[in-house]
Each structure stands twice: as structure tokens, then as C-alpha cells.
Design a protein that fits this description.
By secondary structure, the chain is of the alpha+beta class. It is about 35% helix and about 25% strand. It contains 17 helices and 26 strands. The strands form 7 sheets. The chain has a 9-stranded mixed sheet, with helices on both faces. Helix 2 crosses helix 13. The protein is globular. The structure holds glycyl-adenosine-5'-phosphate. The site of glycyl-adenosine-5'-phosphate (GAP) has 19 residues, from strand 11, strand 16, strand 19 and helix 13.
Length: about 500
């Protein structure tokens, strides 16, 4: 992990925000290769889950929403983390993290009162100054501000802590405009903000991040009317059920077909969205052994959830952590907004001629966590260099073009080849340093192909194409290079 963080900083993938003024914890900026890689991940998500689907519509909503929305959604009252402060030095800690670190035990899902009891009973002290700790209390994670010049409750607005709520408030209008009927989804990719008590682990827990969410609306009687394609049914993955966690058992490997047959996952639509998210993550290059499914235990469920499964990633020394979650939110949000606004949020079923309130299955992920997981999984340290084994579709640079030398017309030919290839791919031209050094620079940022122009190119129009992973160079006629790269990308897309 340290090496990946180091690479991100050295090659400018990710920078601490406003660094010149002393870093503000929990805020980062993506730059250069990092900005491109993040954009590629976002485009891959949008393409798979919105553009290529008939049943999902995208929205791009406001970041700030009024108090009434967050009161109705339950976030004002329940979107809290347990906070504990040192009486002496005033440092603040997340009570659950402090207990986990000091007592080396898992407190997943433990209620606030129990945490407070544990802190007292085990006489935990401030990790910074050994001072006495105060009572654990709830700390609301939303950032608050005001719209306009008046600063009272009527103008209170909050930066959204999840992208989901604009979807719920708008869902009937969006569905009507797009002529969608259940089952259908509304997707959003955008920023979310949480005033985390202790942002940490680099991009893993930050205060501003990019979420990707789909609220998928299903008729409550039809949660099992979903036919998973064979490609999803056959995916096998390690699974840790709530029951296994309670009995301190290990994860077992199951296919989605097994999970449906054995009713491990509550409904088929829930299983479908979990499988589709796993498939997307695998198609980005995440290894099967680096992921597992973990069901939330009872006390851990969010205030809106009936059942939640996380897709967790093995972040090495940080252990297994949530990458993406799929929740069954029931009719909680739709009902809450109907009650609070006094508007009709129900849908109409043509067949039975009856109104109904849909149930929502929500796949929800964070691009920043996926970005970090991809780098951790793709990173290889070799004796003489680092290599990022990124899939060609998501690599910040698809192909780099090098003239062997700057002289004898090689640089001019190199630039001409670069100008041609950049029409089709993300492309970089480099003529400085030894060829080995140039290969190493590209390997470290994950460029899958390097095209070299040498003296033979000037004679017969062939170039060498070097493959990052095998290190092999093969000579091809120049006019075949574009198709060669395209073929390799298509091969990955169809996995
Ligand atoms: N709408 C449901 C929801 O927001 P969540 O599990 O709280 O559920 C969804 O968040 C995803 O957002 C997580 O799986 C994670 O990838 C990402 N996420 C949440 N908090 C984050 C944080 N502080 N920093 C980075 N990513 C975060």
C-alpha cells in the first residue's frame, strides 16, 4: 500500500488538496494520469450501467439539497458516527475505531451505548495524551450551509452525503419523462460529502468523494421475477454470510446460482445486482481472489436497509474493506418522501389497476475506493522497476510512441505515427532518455503498448510493438497497429 501511495504522489496521480496551505485531511485532487484513470473508471461504469441498458436512466442532480429532504430521508437524525473526545487535549476520535484499535476486536454493528460501556469498563485513555475520554455521542456526518442571506432553519441546506436522495425525490418525474415502468433504474454518478471524524487510509475514507449509485425500482410482488444470465449465475466468489460471522466461521466459495438456490441472498433482483457489480469489477481487472461478499450483520444495517451485502476488497495490510454495497432499501425512502411532502409517490399498475409503492434495490459504490483497489491489484514491484498491470481499456495512456533516436528523420516519423494513433487512442510521445528508461516510465503508469520507430521503419514501414506484461516486442506493418490495439481491447471487454 505504501508503495502504491508513493507511486500516486511521485507520478502525480493524486495530490493532497490545497497542500501549500497545509493539508486539509480527507480532501484530494486527481491529476494527469490519475485524473484520466478516474475518468476512465467513471466512463466504464456509466457505459455499462446506463448507456448500454434500456431499463436505466441517468440523472445529474444538485449537490446541495434542503433540510426537508434530509429530515425525510432520516439522515438528519440517523446519519451519525460515534464520537468520543479527550477531556484533556480535546482530540476527537471515532469511538468504534478507537475500541477496535485499542482492544483489537471487531465492533461491527455495535450500538453507541455498548461502545460507551466498553470504553468505560476497559478504562480506555486518549491515544495521543493518555487523558481521560468523555462520553461517546452521535456526530452527524453532513456538511451544513445556508441558501441566501438568511441563516435560519428555513434556508438550511446540506451537501449530499449520498447521491441517492435526488433520485428518490425526482423518481416519478424522471420515469414518466423516460416512459419507464417497473422494473427500472435511475442512476447517478457524482460527488458526495461526509464530514468524517477521522478521514484516513488515503483515498479510502475521505470527506469528498465520487459515488456511483443506481436506485432500481421493482414491484414489491416481483422481487424474484428476474432471470440472471448464465454469465452472472456462474460467477464464483467467497461469501461471508451474517450467520457465518455470528458463528465465527470462514467465508465459503459459492456461485450466484448456488446463492439463489440456497436462498443465501433474499431476492433474485438483489442477487442480480450484486452479480452484475462483481462482473463489472472483474472486467476492470480486479482479481477474483481479491474480492468477497459480506452480508451486514443486524446492528450494522443502515437506518433504511432491509438487507445489505458489501463487495469487499482485500486492501492488504488494511484488511478486507467495503468497495461497493448492494442494499434492499425496501419502500423506506419513497414512503418517507411521500409522508413528508404530502405528494403522491406511488406508481400505478396497469394490469391490476392498482397503485403500489415500489421496493428499491440499490447498488452503490465509490469510484475513489475502486481507483485505489485497481492500483493495489495491478501493482507489481520488479527488481529494476514498477509495473502497473492495468487493463488497456482503463489505462491512462493506451499507447506510447518512441523514436529510437532523435536524428536521421526518426523523430519526424515518430511524431507522424503519434499524430495518427492519437486520433484513436490516448497516446503519448516520448523521445527523451534511453529506450529502456522510456519503457520503464510507461510501465509504471500502466501503458499496455509502446510503439518504437527505428531505422527499419524508414525502409519498410514496420514498427515494433512492445507488450507491457510479457515485455515482448513484435514487428508489425504500421498500418496494422491500430487494429492490433483495438482487437486486444475488444478481447478484454468481452471477458
Ligand atoms: N446510498 C448508500 C450509501 O451511500 P454507503 O455504504 O454509505 O451507502 C456507498 O456508501 C459507497 O460510497 C461505499 O461503498 C464506498 O465505496 C463509498 N464511500 C462511502 N463513504 C466514503 C468515504 N468517506 N470515502 C470514500 N468513499 C466512500
Amino acid at each position: 500500500m505504501e508503495k502504491v501511495v508513493n507511486l500516486c504522489s511521485r507520478r502525480g496521480f493524486v495530490l493532497a488538496s490545497a497542500d501549500a496551505y497545509g493539508q486539509l485531511a480527507g480532501f484530494f485532487e486527481y491529476a494527469g494520469y490519475g485524473a484520466q484513470l478516474k475518468r476512465n473508471l467513471e466512463e466504464s461504469w456509466w457505459s455499462r450501467f446506463v448507456k448500454r441498458r434500456e431499463d436505466v436512466v441517468g440523472i445529474d442532480g444538485a449537490l446541495l439539497l434542503p433540510r426537508a429532504v434530509w429530515k425525510a430521508s432520516g439522515h438528519l437524525d440517523a446519519f451519525n458516527d460515534p464520537l468520543v473526545s479527550c477531556v484533556k487535549c480535546r482530540s476527537r476520535f471515532r469511538a468504534d475505531h478507537l475500541v477496535e484499535e485499542e482492544l483489537k476486536l471487531s465492533v461491527e454493528g455495535m450500538p453507541m451505548e455498548k461502545l460507551a460501556e466498553l470504553i468505560k469498563e476497559r478504562k480506555l485513555r486518549c491515544p495521543k495524551c493518555k487523558g481521560e475520554l468523555g462520553e461517546a455521542k452521535p456526530f452527524n456526518l453532513m456538511f451544513k450551509t445556508f441558501a441566501g442571506a438568511v441563516t435560519d432553519e428555513s434556508s438550511e441546506i446540506y451537501l449530499r452525503p449520498e447521491t441517492a436522495q435526488n433520485i428518490f425525490t425526482d423518481y416519478k418525474t424522471v420515469a414518466l419523462a423516460a416512459r419507464k415502468q417497473v422494473p427500472f433504474g435511475i442512476a447517478q454518478l457524482g460527488r458526495a460529502f461526509r464530514n468524517e471524524i477521522a478521514p484516513r487510509n488515503f483515498l479510502f475514507r475521505v470527506r469528498e468523494f465520487t459515488q456511483v449509485e443506481i436506485e432500481y425500482f421493482v414491484h414489491p410482488d416481483k422481487l424474484n421475477e428476474c432471470a440472471l444470465p448464465e454469465g452472472l449465475l456462474s460467477i464464483e466468489i467467497a461469501v461471508l454470510t451474517a450467520d457465518a460471522q455470528e458463528k465465527k466461521k470462514d467465508a465459503s466459495v459459492l456461485s450466484f446460482s448456488d446463492m439463489i438456490d440456497k436462498k443465501v441472498i433474499g431476492t433474485k433482483w438483489h442477487a442480480y445486482w450484486l452479480a452484475d457489480c462483481v462482473y463489472w469489477l472483474q472486467s476492470l481487472g480486479l482479481k477474483k481472489k481479491s474480492m468477497r461478499l459480506r452480508q451486514h450483520v443486524a446492528g450494522e444495517l443502515s437506518h433504511y436497509s432491509r438487507e445489505t451485502w458489501d463487495i469487499e476488497f482485500d486492501y492488504g495490510e488494511w484488511g478486507w474493506k467495503e468497495l461497493l454495497g448492494v442494499a434492499n432499501r425496501g419502500d423506506y425512502d419513497v414512503t418517507q418522501h411521500a409522508k413528508a411532502s404530502g405528494k403522491d409517490f406511488s406508481l400505478y399498475d396497469e394490469a391490476s389497476k392498482q397503485k403500489f409503492v415500489p421496493v428499491v434495490i440499490e447498488p452503490s459504490g465509490g469510484i475513489d475506493r475502486v481507483f485505489l483497489a485497481i492500483l493495489v491489484d495491478a501493482f507489481e514491484e520488479k527488481p529494476d522497476k514498477n509495473v502497473l498491470h492495468l487493463r488497456p481499456e482503463i489505462s491512462p495512456v493506451t499507447v506510447a510512441v518512441f523514436p529510437l533516436m532523435k536524428k536521421d528523420g526518426l523523430a519526424e516519423k515518430g511524431r507522424a505515427v503519434f499524430e495518427e494513433l492519437r486520433k484513436h487512442f490516448s497516446c503519448e510521445y516520448d523521445e527523451s532518455g534511453s529506450i529502456g528508461r522510456r519503457y520503464a516510465r510507461q510501465d509504471e503508469v500502466g501503458t499496455p503498448y509502446c510503439v518504437t520507430i527505428d531505422y527499419q521503419t524508414l525502409e519498410d514501414g514496420t514498427v515494433t510493438v512492445r507488450d507491457r506484461d510479457s515485455g515482448k516486442q513484435v514487428r508489425f506493418p504500421l498500418e496494422q497497429v491500430e487494429q492490433l490495439i483495438r482487437n486486444s481491447m475488444e478481447q478484454f471487454t468481452n471477458v
